[in-house]
Design brief:
The protein is mainly α and 369 residues long. Among the domains are: 130 residues, no CATH class; 28 residues. Helices cover 83% and strands 0% of the residues. Helix 6 packs across helix 8. The termini are far apart.
Length: 369
């Protein structure tokens, strides 16, 4: 039931590929492709609706306004801090330059007094700032070395020296800043280093504008690089998806081709192995015939034939004897168990006779006879 307003709202955004392109353009940081939006139409509709309430970074418009106000306030405070910090750094650089100059040349006493007074004032101010707790700090925090800001202020130079230093500070600071600007100009445009002082001053008045132009150009190039990076990432994803499709298609073609030729390949392999087996069998038979020819000569074959004839005749005689013995045994079986007992007794007596004959033959008296 709620699909009516949403569909009307989405239809006003676009349809089909146009809607997909608009959604992708509205969320450049979102890793979404047209294939994802096509496969998930409801998700595409949701993103199209969200694009009317959020910016490309994902922030809502009210939050974006608050963020811009906060950034403006932060920029103002940052500029104020940078102004104080750059001034402090400039004064420290002036003191360092004076110390270096004293090591290489003789410095007038007034100039030495000026820089010594400025250095003491900076040190006292820095110590006072370190000892003065802020409103956010713990009020019960112990002071450093038991000192308080009032004790440090007593170390300030005399009021006369301070006033004299303040009177010439702006002039000296202006000279120092101008010197730094000229060095920056020489670095930014080396070809202007050989120009006259007036031309350098004229070029120096336009240096900030040129630096702003260069900064904007660098930011534009950075944005272009970021856009190109996003575009490259999308094109890489599209390339990888197409490459995967090509690989899948190639795999299917390889599988179909392999299945078609597998039967012919198996048949050829079978014929090959059958032919190889026949060849091996023929070789085995040849070797067997060769071994037989080397083993059985004409003389050995005739001797084997004579041995076979003798063995066969002996076998026939044994078979005849066996047949006669079997007939006798059959006749003995007819006589019954009484004859079997007599036969056993006869066998026992015969064995005793044999044993006694052997004993008589083995006795010493029998050997002497």
């Amino acid at each position: 039931m709620s699909a009516g307003p949403d569909s009307t709202h989405v239809s006003s955004l676009g349809k089909g590929d146009g809607l997909h392109q608009q959604v992708i353009a509205s969320f450049p940081l979102c890793d979404v492709t047209e294939a994802d939006l096509t496969q998930n139409p409801q998700f595409c509709k949701l993103l199209a609706t969200l694009s009317q309430h959020v910016d490309p970074t994902g922030l809502t418009f009210p939050l974006k306004k608050e963020l811009e106000k906060t950034e403006q306030k932060l920029q103002s405070q940052r500029r104020h801090w940078l102004h104080s910090e750059s001034l402090h750094k400039g004064l420290q650089e002036m003191i360092q330059d004076h110390c270096i100059q004293k090591q290489h040349a003789t410095v007038p006493p007034d100039q030495s007094m000026f820089y010594e007074t400025m250095e003491k004032c900076l040190l006292v101010a820095q110590c006072v700032r370190q000892l003065d707790p802020s409103s956010a700090a713990n009020q019960d925090q112990p002071s450093v070395l038991g000192l308080n800001p009032q004790q440090i202020l007593e170390l300030m130079p005399s009021e006369k020296n301070v006033q004299r230093m303040k009177h010439g500070l702006l002039r000296e600071l202006e000279k120092h800043l101008k010197k730094k600007c000229l060095s920056l100009l020489a670095y930014y445009q080396p070809e202007w280093e050989s120009e006259s002082e007036g031309l350098k001053n004229s070029k120096l008045s336009h240096l900030s504008a040129q630096l702003d132009i260069g900064k904007r150009r660098a930011e534009s190039l950075k944005d272009t690089c970021r856009e190109n990076s996003v575009l490259l990432q999308r094109q890489t994803q599209l390339y990888l998806s197409e490459l995967i499709k090509c690989i899948q298609l190639l795999q299917s073609l390889i599988l179909d081709h392999k299945l078609r030729i597998q039967t012919d390949l198996d048949r050829k392999k079978l014929d090959y192995f059958e032919g190889k087996c026949d060849l091996v069998l023929q070789k085995i038979k040849t070797e067997m015939v060769g071994i037989q020819l080397d083993t059985y000569t004409v003389d050995s074959i005739s001797a084997h034939r004579k041995i076979r004839e003798k063995l066969e005749s002996a076998l026939k005689a044994c078979q005849v004897e066996k047949h006669s013995v079997e007939l006798k045994l059959a006749s003995f079986d007819i006589l019954g168990k009484e004859f079997e007992a007599l036969a056993k007794e006869y066998c026992r007596l015969r064995q005793e006779i044999d044993v006694n004959n052997w004993a008589l033959k083995s006795s010493p008296s029998a050997k002497d006879k």
